Amino acid sequence: MQDGSGRIVVQNLTKHFGQVAAVQNLSFNVEPGSVTGFLGPNGSGKTTTLRMLLGLVRPTSGWSTINGQPFERLGNPGRIVGGVLEAQGFHPGRTARDHLRVYAAAMGVADQRADDVLNLVGLGAAGNRAAGGFSLGMKQRLALATALLGDPQVLVLDEPANGLDPEGIAWLRSFLKAFAQSGRTVLISSHLLAEVEQTIDQVVIISRGQTMFYGPLDELRKSQQSRVIVAPADPQKLAVALQEARITNVSPTPDGKLAIVGATIQQVGDIAAQAGVALYGVHEEKADLEQLFFRLTSGQYAGQAPYGQAPPPGWGAPPQQGYAPGTPPGGYQQVPPGYAPQQGYAPGTPPGGAPQQQWQQQAQWAQPPAQEQQAWSQQPSGPLQVQPAPPPPPQDPTPPSGDQSTPGAGGGHQ
Ligand SMILES: Nc1ncnc2c1ncn2[C@@H]1O[C@H](COP(=O)(O)OP(=O)(O)O)[C@@H](O)[C@H]1O
Ligand SMILES: [Mg+2]
User: Fold this and answer.
1) Which residues form the ABC transporter domain (predicted)?
2) Where a domain ends, among 265, 292, 319?
3) How far is the CA of 161 from the centre of ligand 2 (A)?
4) Residues 59 and 188 placed together within one structural domain of the fold
5) What is the mean pLDDT of residues 123-149?
6) Number of separate domains in the chain
7) Ligand 1 centre from 297 Cα, in Å?
8) Contact, 389 vs 150, CB < 8 A?
9) Which residue ranges have their beta carbon within 6 Å of ligand 1?
């Protein structure tokens, strides 16, 4: 039986498409009461992971559960998880309202719910219009409305901000936050950290199908260290003087300057003065989150060198957690304390909910792989499917933790 927890567990998920290792040994949990951002560049395996989670692709190995069950065993899954993988799957001639009524009928939900969710996503005035004439942003809203039909406990959205205008993004942000604060679970993917930064509490950052960072967004923020960049007349002499002052995190920059972590501008200036080294320039630099994200995920389509590099020493160096991809991340088995129990989430009136809580757990950093492992395909991903609240699949006798290579779901598998 499903445990009603609203928790998503992804464990050692792996998917190969022929030679392409789309997802490699991915493990993370998503807890109720929070919004988790699933981030990575194009082609990094986000959609494939979400498709496995929603029972649309059979994993090569590993498994995932929602409420303690594989998707295939959720009974009426549309009532538990609302999934949007692509906002293009509407019958072009069908009105938004009729589209929703078709899904409502398949799910055993009253017709009235179609109008409720249309209003909820701001499409109340467009219910009689054919979906084929909708803008991308309107299609995103309609897809979200479809996912919300079953009043689900868990939302899984693939790049939901794509095509939304700034107002739409702001609306989505407040909607998802309120949804999560009502005790529900939200997992959203994006290839742009900035797009979801203000929405998410936790991040899973992947590159080439592998985990690069997994933990609270605040941990990622804290890891951004500032550094002092200085242009000395004699870099070698200053480096020695800094060393003697126990400032050891000093590295040369490509343009002949020194980058110093763990000292203030004033300290560096004083030490340089005492050592008799002239300074031609000094300033403080701070990496923003986007830069860190880029460093963690760069090399997606490059050769060997930049692959999987953590930020270089002295520059946003990660805490030494030593999380090896494939090792089940520890510390994420508990619901973060302080999240409110699920409250009745009234459509159209997102509740204020519990105050945001800091995640208690430690972040998990990936160890960069020793070397390039995969010949990487640049082929674009195949056409995706909308899977908003599908009708229940046939019952599947495969246990959630048994041999997961054959979860035995219906015909959508590849
Ligand atoms: N059905 C498929 N057949 C072959 N390769 C695929 C298929 N779906 C995805 N891929 C490949 O898997 C990798 C990950 O793709 P995808 O999960 O769509 O990444 P993302 O959603 O992060 O952009 C890409 O190299 C993509 O080309
Ligand atoms: Mg994708």
Assistant:
1) 8-233
2) 292
3) 12
4) yes
5) 93
6) 2
7) 16
8) yes
9) 17, 20, 22, 40, 42-48, 377, 379, 381-382, 414
Of the two residues 165 and 317, the one the predictor is more confident about is: 165
Does residue 283 sit in the same domain as residue 200? no
| CA 68 to chain CA centroid, nearest Å | 20
Task: Let me know whether 112 and 128 are in one domain.
Answer: yes
Top mutation candidate among 20, 39, 49, 53 for ligand 1, by most atoms within 8 Å of CB = 20
Q: In this structure, what are the phi and psi dihedrals at residue 33, rounded to the nearest 5 degrees?
A: 85, 5
Assess if residue 344 is contained within a domain: no
The per-residue pLDDT of the chain, averaged, comes to 76
Q: What is the pLDDT of residues 281-333, one digit of tens each?
A: 999 887 677 878 887 887 654 433 333 333 333 333 333 332 333 333 332 22
HSE at residue 324, side-chain half, CA atoms within 13 A, is: 3
Question: Residue 77 C-alpha to ligand 2 middle, in angstroms?
Answer: 22
Q: What mean pLDDT do residues 111-140 have?
A: 93
Instruction: Read off the CATH number of the domain in which 59 is found.
Output: 3.40.50.300
Q: What is the pLDDT of residues 237-263, one digit of tens each?
A: 999 999 999 999 998 988 899 999 889
Q: pLDDT-based confidence at 200, cuts 50/70/90?
A: very high
Lowest mean pLDDT among 177-186, 195-204, 345-354: 345-354
The CATH number of whichever domain residue 228 belongs to comes to 3.30.70.100
332 closest CA partner among 201, 153, 209: 201
Q: What is the dihedral of CA 78, 82, 85, 88, to 10 degrees?
A: 80
* Residue 92, pLDDT above cutoff 80: yes
Question: What domain range includes position 266?
Answer: 224-292
Is the same domain home to 136 and 254? no
128 & 77 share domain? yes
Looking at the fold, whether 214 and 262 belong to one and the same domain comes out as no
Chain segment 360-379, per-residue pLDDT in tens: 344 565 543 333 333 222 22
Long-range contacts of range 249-252, CB-CB < 8 Å, 24 or more positions apart?
A: 249/313, 249/314, 250/314, 251/312, 251/313, 251/314
Cα 152 to Cα 110: distance, rounded to the nearest angstrom: 15
The answer to whether residues 18 and 65 belong to one domain is yes
Residue 57 CA, closest ligand 1 atom number = 1
**Nearest one of 106, 105, 126, 107 to 115, comparing CA atoms:** 126
Domain stop point among 236, 267, 292: 292
